[in-house]
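Build the 3D complex.
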Amino acid sequence: MSDETLWLEQARNGDDEAFCKLVRAYQRPVYNLAYRMLGDPYEAEDAAQEAFIRAYTKLSSYDPQRKFVTWLLSITAHHCIDRLRRRRIQFVDLEAISTNNRSAEHHPAQLEESLIHREDQRFIQDLLQTLPPHHRAVLTLRYWYDLSYQEIAEVMGTTVSAVKSHLHRARGAIAHAIQNTPAEKRPFGLSAQEESL
Amino acid sequence: MIPKHPCTPYYEWIVQDAPLSPEQQARLEAHLDQCATCRNNYQALQQFDALLSTPLYASPPPGFADRVLVRLQTYRAQSRNRAILGLSIGVAIDTLILFILTLIWASHFFTQLHNFPLLIDHLSRTFHYLGDLTGTLIEALLAIVTGLAHNPTFILCLLIALLTFGLNFVTGLGLYTWIRQPINR
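Done.
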């Protein structure tokens, strides 16, 4: 029996320490997904905590045939999509977000990023914020978690063709957003490359 | 909004998340030499893919698991309080229903009493012959049941009363179980 299976069994029986071990094991992917989708460290922490609480309350319905992390990410993604819907975030201009990016400005220490990568990461985060919730989730699951289309479809509770469609549209929107971003707001590599064309 | 790109199929090839065949790649490169819009899209996504080639993970601040545990305990306490409140309201409503039904039943019973001379007779005998109290009461109860068994109001009240009593019992048992349950489990 693997550690994960054992912890799951113990957590189902009410062992809080076992549940804590599960949280420690998966806090990073859950938090990262929440952060990438919500774009705010405080809200990401709250959403990640809520995702774990929801997972705990649904432990009895967890199917052991399924990967636990996939199941957990599914709960997180749906919760974040709900939050984004509640927030009624619409398509926001990249420029508007860049000038109002309180998360990256105020809490840089919460992101384990080196200074070299910070500008790139902020740019990527800004790009993600321009996407609708489902596109954001699919893109994050694809590039941060390297999940297959099938796995993403399981996480999102949709079909593989829908995932491909979301990804296609998301990449199209990203290309559009990058081109609409003023050169001075792009990471230096991108501006330099375009100028060389 | 995603713009409709006139350069089909090149736009689809640029944005798709899958490698192109050598033949498609060659055709795309030839097109990129001529089309500045597609070239910009292509370069933008190349750069985006490059930025994501080693995606960095955001990690929660230290102590995250402990905070989740605290939240879980708060959640349990709130759930318990909500359940107790809900059950209490349930018991109160059940009791109220039972009380109202009893009133209806009793008023119906007394208004119908004159229609059951046998019952009156038995009741009066009950009071007069205390020595035969037990037997006479049973006979009186039998007379009530016999007399009212065909009365729809009586049957309905009886069924609702029994149902309410059952609900009361279940909610009371649930309440008792919740109260006895320790807050952390």
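Chain A touches chain B through 54 residues (CB under 8 Å).
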